[in-house]
Amino acid sequence: MNLNYTPEQIAFRQEVRQWLEEHVPEAPLESFDTKAGFEQHRQWEKTLAEGNWGMVTWPQEFGGRGCNLVEWLIFEEEYYRASAPLRVNQNGIFLLGPTLMEYGTEAQKERFITRMAAGEEMWAQGWSEPGAGSDMAAIRSKAIRDGDEYVINGQKVWSTRAVYADWVFCIFRTDPDSERHRGLSFMLVPLDAPGVTVRPIPQLDGLPGFAEIFFDDVRVPVENRLGEEGQGWQIAMATAGFERGLMLRSPARFQETAKRLVELYRSHRNDILDLSIEDKVVQSYMDAESYALATYQTASRLIKGGNIGAEASLNKIFWSELDQHMHETAMSILASRAELLPQAPAAGEVGRWLDGFLFAQSGPIYAGTNEIQRNIIAERLLGMPRS
Amino acid sequence: MDFTFTDDQQLFCESVRDFLQAEVTPESVREGWDSASGRNETLWQQLVEMGLTGMLVPESHGGMGMSELDFVLLAQECGRVALPEPLVETALVAVPLLANLAEKDPRCASLLEKIAAGETRVAIGHAANNLVSDAHIADWLLLPKGDQVHLLASDQVGLTAQQSIDPSRRLFSVEWHGDDETRLASGAEGVSLLAASLNRGALGAAAQLLGLAEAMVEMTVRYTEERHQFGRPVGANQALKHLMANCAVKSEFAKAPLYRAAYTLSESPSHADFAVSHAKVAAGEAALLAAKNCIQAHGAMGYTWECNLHIFMKRAWALDKFWGHAGFHKNRLHQWLMNPNAKIGADKTFGVQG
Ligand SMILES: Cc1cc2nc3c(=O)[nH]c(=O)nc-3n(C[C@H](O)[C@H](O)[C@H](O)COP(=O)(O)OP(=O)(O)OC[C@H]3O[C@@H](n4cnc5c(N)ncnc54)[C@H](O)[C@@H]3O)c2cc1C
């Protein structure tokens, strides 16, 4: 064990910090759930790509820097420290990207990863359906083989940023007689294909952060299938592992929130009546740090050739509940101003906290609800009997 | 940056675990409850032979010259079996204190050698604990008085037993009078030695708490498979699964803070307060939650003397309050975090924080 950064890692941090200082836009971008904001964020992805900072862990041939996971954590720490824009293409770079590298053909990697890395193509994830939420194996949308093409019919829902994205990666039933986990395949579909209809769904903040997608005799070439026919479930589980495991929510995000929470508390300390709040602030800071420490531990293990399995479920519960806890605490500190929208003249520092508070409510739901994660922990990690 | 234990550290831990699992069973722990001393001299000598009492004794004094980081996994294993012997306090707390004084005080040097060889036993008191554990079997006692550390022989002190809810624990109030002769350190040196002892004691307690938490969950998972109601194992019910999953989450995220604390104590002990308090609070919470959820999952059986759960549960309740209770450690965290000069933020996770 050596908990010091190497001189190279310290230099790397410095390099990241300096680049971000020079490039992060002065004024915060608009929400990426608006059309204008989405385009601003797309532009930012291009800026990152030009500096080769789009996805530092990727190999150089795909616009990355071949960094290891510790360096990735350093990058993320600097990224949140600089309040750089959120990653509009996170479904692409954090979920589909690693999946493509593992299961894609050379041609698919060349075609899709390169443009993703260049910030040219933005991705949505299309797994959930009206009848298939927690029970994803209940997927009914079909992709039926017809010569060199698949013909897709059905509906996806809750697809994040599908309103403005260019592509969606989906799971469809390719064997119409199959049931449950069998007969599913992983498909890549352009959202401008004939027969695709995207219907925005406003979220709690009123903006269309996700969408329903209808497929009506949509044709895609066979080359758009990732992996073998029928291998969809297995690949989807690998992607879900990236989602719950390390990639999607790096600790720096929560540590930065925890730091802001400490600062918010310090500046309000004298007018806070509820004595339990200080304890919640301290608890938040410690928990954010626990998450970071655990992640460094996992990263070190992975670098040495270990792997991550059902433990990803422990992570997902921990960060999502931590995020909720921190934002609840911030709301308590802001007290009677907590309900004010950012544009309210008296809102002051409330704006970001309120947005964060709303979004924190979704953490225990998306990426597999925390109830489902607890089932996985009990049955697969602890070995309790299946019901 | 490498947050893993070495192969050697892991292998040694596994061999100690195998030994403890074989030798320290609920039956053997219960036997100790009925004996006068509550301690097993044969077992202690076996621990000595494995080099465990002398792990942190410098090589120049007949020990293995290892660090808190080398010991932390073993302390976790001691918790996992609810080891009654005072191995953690001897090896992790008393020994480093003596080692710090060995240069200038031949008494300390000689004690170190004897501890490593299993020829003598030392108990250690601290202001954080009111009472001294295992004072009755100690040949020597390290005792604090203000900023002073004293060393007294067993015939120089008066002991009054103070019964604990955990029948394995043997606690004593100690009556003693120190003088120039018994004083090992005072002033700034005494203060810093006592502060370091507190951190090491808290680290040892935290490690044991984590081991206890894991042991409780493991035995409870087993029980909920065996116990049937409504025609199926009670563990098939989601309500119980989620109780156990919550314990797993708490324990998982107490581990890395524990190892960071051990590392910091080994590498830069004067900056370890925050890391140690973090570890102690997190491990205490994990163990208390495990105790609460595990007794619930056992039903009435968990409320009995017969069921082995209470061996672990009671140790957890006791250790959570020993070497600084949650209030003490949280208070240190509060003091630190509320200081405007505290170095906080993601880039400060490692290194000197305060
Ligand atoms: C902000 C946000 C973004 C999202 N983005 C995407 C996206 O980009 N792509 C996509 O495909 N999906 C996305 N989702 C959908 C998400 O994956 C689903 O919401 C999630 O899988 C749960 O499904 P559901 O909403 O249908 O809830 P349901 O499955 O209907 O669950 C309702 C409640 O029942 C509980 N429950 C269900 N089954 C069990 C069980 N076996 N045991 C215990 N409790 C159970 C759940 O935990 C939950 O509390 C997103 C969701 C949100 C909130």
Automatic annotation (TrEMBL), chain A:
<dbReference type="InterPro" id="IPR052161">
    <property type="entry name" value="Mycobact_Acyl-CoA_DH"/>
</dbReference>
<dbReference type="Pfam" id="PF00441">
    <property type="entry name" value="Acyl-CoA_dh_1"/>
</dbReference>
<keyword id="KW-0560">Oxidoreductase</keyword>
<dbReference type="Pfam" id="PF02771">
    <property type="entry name" value="Acyl-CoA_dh_N"/>
</dbReference>
<keyword id="KW-0285">Flavoprotein</keyword>
<dbReference type="InterPro" id="IPR036250">
    <property type="entry name" value="AcylCo_DH-like_C"/>
</dbReference>
<dbReference type="InterPro" id="IPR037069">
    <property type="entry name" value="AcylCoA_DH/ox_N_sf"/>
</dbReference>
<feature type="domain" description="Acyl-CoA dehydrogenase/oxidase N-terminal">
    <location>
        <begin position="6"/>
        <end position="120"/>
    </location>
</feature>
<dbReference type="InterPro" id="IPR006091">
    <property type="entry name" value="Acyl-CoA_Oxase/DH_mid-dom"/>
</dbReference>
<dbReference type="Pfam" id="PF02770">
    <property type="entry name" value="Acyl-CoA_dh_M"/>
</dbReference>
<dbReference type="InterPro" id="IPR009100">
    <property type="entry name" value="AcylCoA_DH/oxidase_NM_dom_sf"/>
</dbReference>
<keyword id="KW-0274">FAD</keyword>
<protein>
    <submittedName>
        <fullName>Acyl-CoA dehydrogenase</fullName>
    </submittedName>
</protein>
<dbReference type="InterPro" id="IPR013786">
    <property type="entry name" value="AcylCoA_DH/ox_N"/>
</dbReference>
<dbReference type="InterPro" id="IPR046373">
    <property type="entry name" value="Acyl-CoA_Oxase/DH_mid-dom_sf"/>
</dbReference>
<feature type="domain" description="Acyl-CoA dehydrogenase/oxidase C-terminal">
    <location>
        <begin position="230"/>
        <end position="382"/>
    </location>
</feature>
<comment type="similarity">
    <text>Belongs to the acyl-CoA dehydrogenase family.</text>
</comment>
<feature type="domain" description="Acyl-CoA oxidase/dehydrogenase middle">
    <location>
        <begin position="124"/>
        <end position="218"/>
    </location>
</feature>
<dbReference type="InterPro" id="IPR009075">
    <property type="entry name" value="AcylCo_DH/oxidase_C"/>
</dbReference>
TrEMBL record, chain B:
<dbReference type="InterPro" id="IPR009075">
    <property type="entry name" value="AcylCo_DH/oxidase_C"/>
</dbReference>
<keyword id="KW-0274">FAD</keyword>
<dbReference type="InterPro" id="IPR037069">
    <property type="entry name" value="AcylCoA_DH/ox_N_sf"/>
</dbReference>
<dbReference type="Pfam" id="PF00441">
    <property type="entry name" value="Acyl-CoA_dh_1"/>
</dbReference>
<comment type="similarity">
    <text>Belongs to the acyl-CoA dehydrogenase family.</text>
</comment>
<dbReference type="InterPro" id="IPR013786">
    <property type="entry name" value="AcylCoA_DH/ox_N"/>
</dbReference>
<feature type="domain" description="Acyl-CoA dehydrogenase/oxidase C-terminal">
    <location>
        <begin position="189"/>
        <end position="335"/>
    </location>
</feature>
<dbReference type="InterPro" id="IPR036250">
    <property type="entry name" value="AcylCo_DH-like_C"/>
</dbReference>
<dbReference type="Pfam" id="PF02771">
    <property type="entry name" value="Acyl-CoA_dh_N"/>
</dbReference>
<keyword id="KW-0560">Oxidoreductase</keyword>
<protein>
    <submittedName>
        <fullName>Acyl-CoA dehydrogenase family protein</fullName>
        <ecNumber>1.-.-.-</ecNumber>
    </submittedName>
</protein>
<dbReference type="InterPro" id="IPR009100">
    <property type="entry name" value="AcylCoA_DH/oxidase_NM_dom_sf"/>
</dbReference>
<keyword id="KW-0285">Flavoprotein</keyword>
<dbReference type="GO" id="GO:0016491">
    <property type="term" value="F:oxidoreductase activity"/>
</dbReference>
<feature type="domain" description="Acyl-CoA dehydrogenase/oxidase N-terminal">
    <location>
        <begin position="6"/>
        <end position="118"/>
    </location>
</feature>
